[in-house]
Please model this.
Amino acid sequence: MNLTLKVWRQKNSADKGGFETYPVSDISEDMSFLEMFDVLNERLINEGQEPIAFDHDCREGICGMCSMYINGIAHGPLHSITTCQLHMRHFHDRETIVVEPWRARPFPVVKDLVVDRSAFDRIIEAGGYISVNTGNAVDANAIPIEKESSDLAFAAAACIGCGACVAACPNTSAMLFVSAKISQLAKLPQGGPERKTRVVNMIDQMDKEGFGSCTNIGECQAVCPKDIPITHIARANKEYLRATFAASK
Amino acid sequence: MELNTKIPEGQLEHKWTNYKGHCRLVNPSNKRNLEIIVIGTGLAGASASATLAELGYQVKSFFFQDSPRRAHSIAAQGGINAAKNYQNDGDSVFRLFYDTIKGGDYRSREANTYRLAEVSGNIIDQCVAQGVPFAREYGGLLANRSFGGVQVQRTFYAAGQTGQQLLLGAYSALERQVAMGKVKMYARHEMVELVVIEGKARGIIARNLVTGELERHFGHAVVLASGGYGNVFYLSTNAMGSNVTASWKAHKKGAYFANPCFTQIHPTSIPISGDHQSKLTLMSESLRNDGRIWVPKKKDDPRKANEIPEEERDYYLERRYPAFGNLVPRDVASRGAKERCDAGYGVGASKQAVYLDFASAIKRYGKVQANKMQLENPDEQTIIQLGKKVVEEKYGNLFEMYEKITGENPYEVPMRIYPAIHYTMGGLWVDYELMTTVNGLFAIGECNYSDHGANRLGASALMQGLADGYFVIPYTIGNYLADEIATKPIPTDHPAFDEAEKSAAERINRLMNVKGNHSVDHFHKRLGKIMWNKCGMSRNAQGLREAIEEIRALREEFWQDVHISGGTDELNPELEKAGRVADFLELGELLAVDALQREESCGAHYREESVTEDGEAKRDDEHFCYVSAWEYKDGENSELHKEPLEFNVVHLTQRNYKK
Model:
């Protein structure tokens, strides 16, 4: 396959940045999208140009590092996958493909397609945990948990923190990411003691980081590589109301 | 230097209790003044950082990714073992210990492995308390499954994402300590030098990968949790960034490297599709429960799989190992596939693959379903349809993943699979306290060599990472730091820091100034080919000698011809890769040297000269019942130290899978 790539190049966070066009040839349809980038980068290096920086690590759809808009869609045209799992057979010969980094103010561009997603870590720091020091635990089977709740908590916990939900949201809201964690811990008895403080603190932190509010558009669930549904957002809103209006103190 | 294992006195089952009862402690007001550097945030690193901070130490956590949650432990699929005996099927700490020693082909230390089994139950308790959503039964209690080569159900799991869920548990515990100000995070930082002062590890030089700045960091102790070195083979199931650099820098500063030739190959990975391939994706081992492995009986058969009639197929594992068939252990299955492909029977475009066929499983399940539904004389089509549904329930997500990557539908055509480098049992030599041969330098998780011997059992890597981080290092590091309470933080303008930074800077400049003609990947791929062909699944003396020569020549060429674009004072992934590959080019040689001196077959290490009459691996306990611990001596002349392995509780026997 021969393709034309229009890729966002930006030297650093202070640079204005812009698109550069690169023709790429001899692309096999068995390559993954990132392997196509490897081929392009190899060529750029051989030509004495600087290769394109992009985040990637596991290349099997679980680490959450890869993060590109491909033709305007976070993680590209296929559903339920990350960029690294997308293969070139889903494109056609002579296609022009536009590649950009996540566009969101709380995710500033570090270089080219690499962005800074540390805002997500800070939201988890605000309460995305159960306060239990090592050694405090009771026997694992001393806490029976209804299978349905446990399965639901697992489905929420499948989030890989890639940020596609934020990238896709016209409001730049992080509610899908935040609600998945709130939902997971709200569904488990272990999460009970901190249930109210957690939801308030995490949502406060989300606001502080500059993420927008959710207006139930649903773009986030459409691009989520792990198919996390927006019902978690509804649950998080319920948790938030419960914590703020029905305060126990 | 004499290797002192520091194994406590007493009976095996009392050693850890005795140790904990007698090791020295650091009181809370002193802990506040002690700083610990932890490299890596995988299961071992994240759990250690969180736990040490909970105890009151000041922790600095370094990782090359953008978030601690990205570490490659996240990709572990299958599960985590623990001797809980929830299934009442006869499991016990002793049995888990015994299975691990035997699985490792008797090349691990009894005391360490026993301790691992002993704390395994606590790990599950801790993870559940953190909110890790393990699979459960309808009664609300935890579910278990069985896993490769053991007779009890002791594996806890969270669908095919157990590593992810455990890591997110450890990550959240870590973030909690960050919020409390006890852990300071250094994202996108890579350790490039170890600082040793008066024989003790006292800090590191880290490169800030965004600004390129070299930073100096002091620690009263340094803990490496930087993972394995599978990427020395270029293609592996490791993440792209997984590297040996932190361990290798420590090795060059005096930490012995143990058993580097023990590298595990997983039999069922999606095969290589071309030269562009950047990594290999694992397909769960569980598929071998229902899939039948075969190749055509005819060499270089050009026909498609479905066009080859039954009688022209060679189900070679079933043929050679009638008792275990397709369920032989990982190393045996891997070598079988390699042997067939090397002999010219491989399939697919590359001819480096074998078929994993579900057609008979689909028919078998279809018939059972039809019986259940009391269908009379169902036609073939109906049976296949019913069977596909059953297979989908069992393996649906794996089949989907396979189709995403290959574009082929495994319900219709057999999967193509091939072995891939997966895990490295070798690593930094550590004593019972997980301390390396450098005082105050500890190694935990995959980056140490300790518990898996020559072969790791499925679902044991997660167990070891968390055992080391949550339950071992918090005790053993205290025993060391008790002597350090009077040590004031050493200012980072100390000459040792000057020297370490200078050496790191010089190396970076040297790399940048080669200004040759080839990319880093060009050399990495070539190294991978040497390693895979001559130090891979099957090794012999001649091949290993050739490999050593070829690696030396390639290393020379690398330092004369590598080309790195971009600058040093910015985010430069090429420069990061170059540093890592330069280290792999040194480690690769040591791996081959170690494989050459170990003239026996054991576990994953298969020497063609040491086989039984029917071609199976033959261990040589008389001559090789030891851990090889290598001391760095200026490049090409590493010195071997042997830690003899003593087995006081288990008896050494040869493995057999034919009957």
